[in-house]
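We store amino acids, tokens; thus:
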Amino acid sequence: MLNIEEQKDYRISLHHLGFRPFFLLGSLFALVSITIWFLQYHFNILLPKIDNLPAAFWHGHEMIYGYGMAIIAGFLLAAVRNWTNVQTLHGWPLMLLALVWLLARLIPFSGSAHALSLMVLFDIGFNFLLCLAIMQPIMKAHQWSQLSIVLILTLLSLANLLFYFGMSGQVQTGMEMGLYAGLYLVISMMLLMGRRVIPFFIEKGVDEQAELTNYRWLDVASIVLMLVFITLQVFSPEMGLAAIVAFMLFLLHSLRLVGWHTPGIWQKPLLWILYLAYVCITLGFGLTALANFGYLNPMLATHAFGLGGVGLMTIGMMARVALGHTGRNVFEPPAILRWIFLLATLGLIARIGLPLLLPGSYSLWIGISQVFWILAFGIFSWVYAPMLVKPRVDGRYG
């Protein structure tokens, strides 16, 4: 049982459960970092001050290992608590973990002569501490099947370390390999978590009777092929073989999407945003196959995964988890959510769809996409920050 005394006089609850500080910091960081990237991309205002960290690599790294890892941390610290019935990190240890994450984000702007060493220290330190924080309740509850989550987190830590080895010149192309390995591992986490919660959310959330179809063989095949895909796509020069595996993953996840579809999801913003995110991940595999054969810009596939898969999935999960864990009704979300999700979706279309149709205005579409995402995260932060800071509406701890 959870050993937390319930009180009724909380004023600030940011330290109660992991989703609170990490969803707050993550959404605010997304808002700030996309704005910085907008200024750098269009006006050449170079703000990161580490010589070995070009702005484009900073952008990629911070979207994956900064924003992405923050939302993963917040989600897992809340979810593992529910799965294991063991209290996860809270109080001052939780705030200390959040501080370590924050320091890693701020170091590139410090101008310190030791910025690279400090960034590695805090960033890899955060990865390591998060692994321990997730592993401890899982082992205490003897839920050994959940250790796959710790394995992905460990691999993400190693991929992040590979990025820094490349940044310091110790591993040739280490930065590129670290970024792509990190992206695909985050997608693996999205697929793992999505398989667990999306069908459940749909069946419980739609107004009609829904019985979704799942296949055990598809679950196993998608995991095995994902491991093969990451290995080939990141570490092998055989792009043709990686393209074939990517296309197989496109087919498998398309079949899963068919089994999960029911018309009622399109009436529920908290459902269609997650379903659309899974569509984008599936599309990412298809676009990767085409990119590997030289038919389109590989950045379109990368952003189908990044903006569509990670972006839509995380903003949708944050919106739902924050409502449920602050004692609010997830079946009656704030009306403004549909506009937040619409802005994010328009940003995705501008970044992927419009360059396919009108590639001559590529920079313009990137700018429009950035503006849409800045608006989406700005409104999201404005709506959700008070929920994340203030106590639960029922006065309970959490």
Notes: Residues 174-205 form the longest helix (32 residues). Confidence is low (pLDDT under 50) at residues 3-7. The two ends are 14 Å apart (CA to CA). The chain is about 75% helix and 0% strand.
